[in-house]
Amino acid sequence: MKPIYAAFALTACLMTAGCTEQAGDGGAEESAAGNRAEASHDAPAEEALSIVLTVDGLRLSDDSNMVTFGTPEETAIAEMDAIAGAPTERSSNDECGAGPMAFAHFGALTINFQNSRLVGWSMFDGEEWEGRPVATPAGITIGSRRAEVEAAPQAVFEETSIGLEFTADGVDGVMSEDGPEGVVINLWAGTNCIFR
Question: Are the CB atoms for 150 and 183 separated by under 8 Å?
Fold first, then answer.
């Protein structure tokens, strides 16, 4: 399968098709710059990250504010609202391999729920994020080059039915292509709705 089609297939599978409802108004796109903490030692950029994507959840604003997998849905949404505004969309999919899932979309970032508990997150290339800094603790984000992924702890690459997948620092993702010009086009951790 060609990388562009694999990326499209992954994006189409992860972006759910059922039960969509729009949430809020344009206020959902407002920046939460006032809530950002000073950059930590592991931040990949000079500007403080508003969200750090981790293997067990999301670190919001600073090291002390973790929203881990298992957090109640209402709490996770409220915490995200403080950083990224209200969800731009809510949806669900009853046909995920892991069972029925609900989703809250915050532009490029989607957080996943089962039984009203946070179980995973995913991030996609091509979705709006309004310039908010978001990355893994190792600095991997959408658009990172292969060399950046290879430099992350425990980086492993494997060609699969959805493209060139990798695991680095405990987080999974897909590259746009094999080779040094490849960039990260998808990231995820926890339970996700991926059709292989």
Answer: no
* Residue 74 CB neighbour total at 10 angstroms: 9
The 10 Å Cβ neighbour count of residue 119 is 22
The tally of domains found in the chain comes to: 1
Within 8 A by CB and 6+ apart from 2, the residues are none
- How many beta carbons lie within 10 A of that of residue 49, not counting itself? 26
Rounded to two decimals, the pTM is: 0.74
Would 196 be classed as within a structural domain?
A: no
Q: Provide the pLDDT for residue 84.
A: 83
Q: Is residue 194 in a domain?
A: no
Burial of 194 (0-12, 13-18, 19+ CB in 10 A): buried
Pairing of strands 134-135, 51-54: parallel
Q: Summarize pLDDT for 85-144 with one digit per residue, the tens.
A: 899 999 999 999 999 999 999 888 999 999 999 999 999 876 655 556 789 999 999 999
Amino acid identity of residue 173, one-letter, is G
What's the domain range around 120?
3-189
Instruction: Please report, in angstroms and rounded to a whole number, the separation of the first and last CA atoms in the chain.
Output: 12
